[in-house]
Specification:
CATH superfamily of the largest domain: NAD(P)-binding Rossmann-like Domain
Strand order of the largest sheet: 1-11-8-7-5-6
Helix content: 40-55%
Number of helices: 10
CATH topology of the largest domain: Rossmann fold
Largest sheet: 6 strands, parallel
Bound molecules: NADPH dihydro-nicotinamide-adenine-dinucleotide phosphate
Shape: globular
Strand content: 15-25%
Length: 279
């Protein structure tokens, strides 16, 4: 069993991005990432802090728009539209979840595809689904990068993805399909989940339940990617029963230190890509 070390890979990615940001600066282009936060969800605060720290490390300038929880829909949309029109802003990140009462889809629609560094826009999602170049959601993109940098091939492999959310499961399945894997997507209505998982050469879990993936669900020698982030007794853990599953795998991601750091690294990459395209 080998560890898929997301911390190490993410550090490599950041070092590469730092050089690209410096080269953009030499050509007069500053890489600015607008971070829109509405309300005071405490988990969002931690996520934003991590993203901002990573931005600063590579030389990306964060620009904050902090709005109170009671911000009306129209005002939230206007803030995002103003950022969309600002040439200093290369990418726009609206931290989710938004407070109840705000229409998330309508706010996200105000981000133009070229500044959509989260890859959530209908245009980018459609391009991904059509197998065309797209800005792809950071978490599944981070998984692909982690596999690629560890020379783990996916073409021809049977990949099983558990979860079908728009931000993880679905784009993950599409990326794997675009990379020539044979893909099975499982969800809460799937019958015979364990047997399907046992067929997987590559198993990606994005459910959000601790110890969801147990040893009897994993084929000997499979690659297991744990996207889940759960908190048990104050400690972070993934979806996979790591202690039981790891000995049966060829590669496995730890939680923390697996997919999480890659997600942040891909956000920065999407932002630098956007800046280069804008230049
Ligand atoms: P969602 O809650 O949106 O999706 C969870 C998915 O799991 C759904 O598709 C759901 O199926 C499926 N599911 C739930 N129960 C079962 C079950 N018993 N059997 C099979 N499938 C099931 O979560 P997200 O996709 O947003 O996130 C998933 C996990 O990944 C969470 O722990 C989240 O915190 C983590 N995450 C980690 C990131 C990182 O950087 N590492 C980034 C983003 C998320 P159905 O569609 O039928 O309801």
């Amino acid at each position: 069993m080998k560890l898929l070390d997301g911390k190490l890979c993410a550090a490599e990615v950041r070092a590469e991005l730092k050089a690209r940001v410096a080269s953009l600066a030499a050509r007069g282009k500053r890489v600015g990432l607008a971070v829109v936060r509405i309300g005071d969800d405490p988990a969002s605060e931690i996520y934003i802090r991590n993203k901002v720290r990573a931005c600063e490390e590579v030389g990306i300038a964060p620009l904050f728009r902090l709005l109170p929880a009671g911000t009306p829909q129209r005002m939230a949309e206007d803030v995002v539209k103003a950022l969309a029109a600002d040439p200093e802003v290369c990418g726009i990140l609206v931290q989710l979840p938004l407070p109840a009462g705000l229409d998330e889809a309508r706010i996200l629609q105000c981000i133009p595809a070229e500044k959509d560094v989260d890859g959530f826009s209908a245009e980018n999602f459609g391009r991904l689904a059509a197998g065309r170049p797209a800005t792809v959601a950071c978490t599944p993109q981070g998984v692909m990068e982690l596999l690629r940098r560890n020379c783990i091939p996916v073409a021809g492999k049977h990949a099983v993805v558990i979860g079908r959310s728009n931000i993880v499961g679905r784009p993950m399945a599409l990326l794997l399909l675009n990379a020539d894997a044979t893909v099975t997507v499982c969800h809460s209505k799937t019958r015979g989940l364990a047997a399907l998982c046992r067929e997987a050469d590559l198993l990606v879990s994005a459910v959000g339940t601790p110890n969801f993936v147990t040893a009897d669900m994993v084929k000997e020698g499979a690659v297991v990617v744990d996207v889940g982030i759960n908190r048990v007794g104050g400690k972070l853990c993934g979806d996979v029963d790591f202690a039981q599953v790891a000995p049966h795998t060829s590669w496995i991601t730890p939680v923390p230190g697996g997919v999480g750091p890659m997600t942040v690294a891909m956000l920065l990459k999407n932002c630098v890509d956007a800046a280069e395209r804008q230049l």
